[in-house]
Amino acid sequence: MSGSNVVSSEFHTELAKRRDIVNIRLKKLINEQLDMETDLKKAIRYTLEGAGKRIRGVLVLFCCELVSGRVNTNAETAAATLEMVHTYSLVHDDLPAMDNDDLRRGQATCHIAFNEATAILAGDALLTLAFEILSKHIDEESLALSLIRELSKAAGPAGMLAGQMADLKAEETKPTQDLVEYIHMNKTAKMFRCATALGALCGRADKKKYEALCEYGVKIGLGFQIADDILDVSATSEQLGKTAGKDVRSAKATYPAVFGLDKSKHFAKNIAEQAVDSLTPFGAKADSLRQLALALLERKS
Question: Within a domain: residue 3?
Fold first, then answer.
């Protein structure tokens, strides 16, 4: 990987600042929903206020700042709505009919803390509210439409939902490289690409920069998911904030299941390097995104 192979303390400080921006925006947007049913709002706040890493939202901010020199209100809104959609996917993924998990972000999953019906409705509310907010809070109609198009495509039946469906079906088959790559691309990488695309659009990136950031998003998303697969095998539930070892017990199609742990680590490193290489058009200005690729590779939770 080009540049320093050590994640700086300054980067972690900047990452925390961006995470705070996303969290503040999320809280403000939910508080503004005065007509929302009380118990539904309580469940939504519970799921959003868990200790999430906000990597996708942070990516929106980093990419906007990279191409425009600053984080703007549109990017903050886009980052928050992306995290709403991501959180909805986790709430539904944890349901008994899906992965049937009882721990997420270091706390009881939504259906455990409340009940299954409330969890379903909270997820539905987060998904639909995200698009309502984009339609109302983005200051230019054409930009709002572009953001909605990107997010709906990434999260929809040819994106994240396709990956989740394949992930569930894979429990009944022997995992292959093609299957794992399909699941990871659709379930995770397309949402990371969406994050970089939203940031690029909010920052008014030209076509070359937009495409470079989208390529970075795909690669870093794949690397993130491979690292997640590895952590499921090597980390504890306390470190992860979710149930460790679940992939193996559920016979999930993962990189370690197909390639083993050592080869999976090699794949993760190689994809992180590819992500960094896609940032060449930006020069030193993209150092934060380079550091992020390394940080995600080395994460322990």
Answer: no
